[in-house]
Amino acid sequence: ASQLIPLRPNQSYTLTGELSSNGLTSDQLPFIEIAGRDCSFRSATKMVKPDQDWTPFSLSFTLPDACRQGVMVRLRRHHSKRINSLISGEVGISNFSLQTTPSPSIR
Q1: Is 96 in contact with 56 (CB distance < 8 Å)?
Q2: What is the pLDDT of residues 45-102, one digit of tens each?
């Protein structure tokens, strides 16, 4: 699952939400990633646990100047290292919010 979001470069943002999981069966579990559409910017949460009650997450980032086409916010996982690399179980995503935050000041 993914969503393209147009954002302004050189602006700071915070993405918040909640993740849950039940019975996940892989060595590589899902996580939320923010990736620049036209640049190499990346930021991500930790992988969810195989069984996890609703747990809040927060990702704060400043979009680099080179990112002019916004970001992709997506649920993903890395390739499994197991021979049986299929995943099963359930992942829940709730209460997504993306807010601008004050940019860090230079002192």
Answers
A1: no
A2: 999 999 999 999 999 999 999 999 999 999 999 998 888 888 899 999 999 999 999 8
Residues counted in the chain: 107
| Residues 3-26 pLDDT 10s | 999 999 999 999 999 999 999 999
Please give the model's pTM, rounded to 2 decimal places: 0.86
Structure tokens at 40: 């190499």
Residue 107, both tokens: 């002192």
Closest to 73 (Cα-Cα) out of 12, 17, 10 = 17
Place of tokens 């949460």: 45
State how far the Cα of 53 lies from the Cα of 49, in Å rounded to an integer. 9
DSSP 24-70: --SSS--EEEEEESSS--EEE-PPPPSSEEEEEEEEEEE--TT--S-
